[in-house]
Write a sequence for this structure.
């Protein structure tokens, strides 16, 4: 019997469903919110030269806003600084970024899309959309 070769993801990653990320920890906080810690699932390419990084330099946690997943959620991205392996590249290191959370962003693209849709479809101002409990409890895309 042959089986297809596929990348199997864990249940938490499948449920959270944030492209380019995998869930490394999920817990319920005392106030009932869920804390989800994620990391990227592929090593990034250098923003200057495009060479794929292989060595991590340091890690920090970045809080990002996201849509509610079965209630309020606190998302922490375990974000790495990577060494650029290309000797001719002027950039020695860089922090990773993705299409979902671009450089310097504090929210996911899917949250920004939902906020914009809420404002456009409701015909209300951003401030009124926020007061009507816009997804993620946030009022405007960054």
């Amino acid at each position: 019997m042959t089986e297809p070769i596929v990348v199997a993801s864990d249940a938490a990653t499948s449920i959270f469903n944030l492209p380019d990320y995998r869930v490394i920890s999920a817990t319920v906080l005392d106030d009932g919110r869920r804390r989800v810690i994620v990391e990227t699932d592929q090593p990034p390419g250098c923003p200057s030269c495009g060479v794929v990084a292989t060595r991590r330099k340091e890690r920090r946690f970045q809080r990002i806003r996201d849509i509610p997943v079965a209630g309020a959620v606190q998302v922490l991205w375990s974000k790495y600084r990577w060494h650029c392996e290309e000797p001719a590249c002027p950039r020695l290191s860089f922090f990773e970024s993705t299409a979902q959370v671009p450089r310097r962003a504090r929210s996911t693209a899917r949250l920004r899309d939902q906020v914009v849709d809420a404002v456009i479809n409701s015909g209300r101002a951003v401030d009124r959309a926020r007061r009507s409990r816009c997804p993620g409890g946030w009022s405007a895309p960054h």
Remarks:
- The beta strands are 21-28, 34-40, 56-64, 73-83, 93-95.
- The helical segments are 11-16, 109-122, 126-131.
- The first strand starts at residue 21 and ends at 28.
- The two ends are 51 Å apart (CA to CA).
